[in-house]
Amino acid sequence: SAPPAMPGVPLPFVLLLLLAGAPAQSFPRDLVARSTVGLEATAAYPRFEGLRGDNGTARLGLDFQRMLRLNGTLLVAARDHIYAFDLRRDKGTLYPERHLTWETQDRENCAMRGRRQDECHNYIRVLVPRDAETLLACGTNAFSPLCRTYQVSSLAQQGDEVSGQARCPFDAKQSIVALFVDGSLYSATVADFQASDAVIYRSLSPGQAPLRTLKYSSRWLQEPHFVQVLPYGPYVYFFFREVAVELSALGKVLVARVARVCRNDRGGSPRVLERRWTSFLKVRLQCSIPGDTVFYFDVLEAVTPPQTLHGRPAAMLSPRCHHSIPGSAVCAFYLADVERSFEGPFAEPRGATWTPVPEERVPQPRPGCCAGMGPAADVVTSGDFPDETLLFAKEHPLLHSAVGPAGGRPLFTRTGTRLTQLAVDTGAGPRGDHTVLFLGAEDGRVLKVLAAAQHPEATQPPGGTLAPGDTRELGDNGDSSAKTLLLEEISLYDPGRCRSPRGAGVPSRVLGLELHLPSRELIVAFAGCLLRLPLSRCARHGSCRGSCLAARDPYCVWLPSRGCVPFSEDLPSGFQQDTEGSLGISGTCQGEVGEGGGHWGLGDIWGFLETRGVRHPGPGADATVPVPVLVGCVLGAFALGALATGLVATCCQRPAVPKPVPVPP
Question: Which candidate, 125, 136, 157, 260, places its Cα nearest to that of 203?
Fold first, then answer.
């Protein structure tokens, strides 16, 4: 059975953002956006590019690294600075109420190592809460990483600096995830200047020695890029992508992984795995589209923090493809399914292939389990495991099976666009029963997706990972009211108002998304700026009831006295919403009474939307045309065609030439 969730931390599912690669014909058609919001409509949204009068930021750009929201305070780590924003302030502004500056004192040595001057800064890559009052910040410090503790309320430094090695990368381009659990810092990054020593590390533990993964072992970690860390039950999970050692015969193949370690792991015996994890195991996450040709999304890009979905722990991931087709997907993985996968067979190489280890060869207690629990209930600490168990764990960190997504397929797929970030609201709508995905893309857009929720009577697709007794899943059960919808495509990146730092890669790439539901907004981060994005644009529908309801937006409701407005708890009763499309509203306002008692025509609706920089094609892929209009168009086209054909024939007609009269002999 799955371990109990941590108190106060509901974990129903994990959403993953992944990228894929396979034949084009197996990829599903992209959804048509029901509304497209252009830059002219988002230009007025508040932005932050740096402190006023800060010449360094004005010259080099903001260089965003990561952000952390603590209640109504948003903490943003960048190059040489940490900024604190009060999200409860006026939504029309985005400017920090306080900040700290932490610059490196080691630029000369950095330059002597062959680095450019603009690389020799302090890129603050770690920003994690240590307790309710303090947070840990770690920076690259000109390729000599350091960590400091700061007070959350004042950003004042507390205590002395400590080394950032294995807690923060040397280079800002290298990946890092970190989290405090039980007073210990769990981090995953590279531990050396050459980036050859990838490590999952536990440190700053009171009265305990640091613990880490095996050094320079391709079986444990091979060129990993770490994406997320989260606790669940007696374990801490790490989500990452890496080069698959089991597929080395095919070349460098990237796969999505989840690894786990026990929170009570104290390392092995002096003979085997001393000061190394005894519980480290990893398994492949298989986000794919089933069919004759299976399409895999293996390049893990983003993983949501723990969410509650249908009362079950899960995570949402977003991977993309790494072959010729730029495509991305979002998959949900129930943590119970992930947990069961660690009970599967171990993998080991046999010649050029990897095969499952027969169960009779697996020692007992089972390698990877936690001391004092389950099969190892009689083992006091991890150092008391038999040498046989520890040796097997050292050589067999990989499980042979793979974890499939909830529902057996992705929640959402997209071709031609690389999705890079993911945020999710699982309690959207007046009843809190809708799931909305916000997806950041490499081209500077944010996609807002209403995920489908299967009805209780829906059946599970083949190859799914349903737990016994569970009948509700995200997915598409064939009912038109239960389809995933792409509600909005929102363009946000404006190069003229978001200065890109040198060496920032793709400047339009969305680097961070942070939901703040109390103010109904999404904070969007690029390398050069931050932006406050409202969750909805209900006002664009004005007094057009059809357009408001046909938008299917769970954040918008129709109120006869006020028009189309964002939903809030203080609204009077009598509002309407149609997220399921059950009313069959076309989205036009022909014949409907608008403001001032007038009638809305189709031209009026388009004019209203165009003036706000929003192109609203109605109900997207399901748009329909009234029959009288269709018949009129067909008859008009026929008449015009006949007339044009007659005119052309008349103009091009040649005069008849009479035949010569035959001369009699």
Answer: 136
